[in-house]
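To the team - 2'-deoxycytidine-5'-monophosphate complex, inputs and output below.
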Amino acid sequence: MSATKGRTTSRDTILRAQIPSLESDLTHMIIAIDGPAGSGKSTVAKLVAGRLGFHYLDTGAMYRAVAHRALSLGLVLDDEDTIANIAATDEISFGHEPGATLPSIVRIADEDVTAAIRLPEIDEAVSAVARMPHVREAMVAQQRTLGGSDDIVVEGRDIGTVVFPDAEVKVFLTATPEERARRRAAQQALTGISVDATGVQDALLRRDSADSSRKHSPLVPAADAVKLDTTGLSLMEVVEAIASLAEERQS
Ligand code: DC
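Output:
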C-alpha cells in the first residue's frame, strides 16, 4: 500500500485532495468493527475475516506505527506539524508471514515495527498522536485506499463513523473494563511483556477517556451500528453474530 507521498508546503490542500471519494461500490462489502481497547476487536475482526474469506485491516496499528516513528526520531509528542508530516509521507505497509492468509507484519518507512508498536510506551503515546487532525486525515486517506476495493473487515475507532460511513455492516464492540483489562493483560503476557492487571486497567481507562473525549473523530458508536457487549459471550458467539449480519446483508 502506498501512503500519501511528497513533502509539500501546502499539506492541507494536498491531503484533502488525496482522500479518496466515498462513492458507494456495490461490488464489495466493508465490515466496520469499532470499539475501545480490549473489547476483543482484533481477535474478532481477524476471525470474521478468516471465516468469510475477507481482507483485514488493523487501523490502530497505523496510528501505533506513526507514534513509534515519532518516538524513534526523538520527537516530542506535541510537535504536531512534524508528526503529521510523518503520517503523510512515511509509507505504512502490511505484510504476511509465510503461509498466513491475514496480514500481521507492520512496516513504516521500510522498518518492521510489528513487535515494537505493541510495547507499553506506544500504548501510552498513541492517543496523543491519534488526536491530531492532520494525522487523522492522512490515516483516513490511506485507509480508504486500502479498504476501498475489496471485501474487507476494518477495525478501529472511527471506521463506521468517519472512514467508511457507508459500510454495509457496522458493529460496535464493548466489554466491562475488568474484562477488557484481563484480555489485554493476557495478550501482552503472550508476547512476553510482564504486566500488572491494575496498571493495565488504569492505562486502558486513560486511553478510552482520551480517545472518547478528543475533538476529532472521537470513539463513539455510529448511529446505525449494532452494539455488542462481549463480556459474557464466547469468541465464536461474537464471530457468528457478525458473520450472520454480513450474510444477511449479502443476500
Ligand atoms: O486499537 P489499538 O489499541 O491498536 O489503537 C491504538 C490507538 O489508536 C488507540 O489509542 C486509538 C487510536 N485509533 C484511532 O484513534 N482510530 C482508529 N481508527 C484506530 C485506532
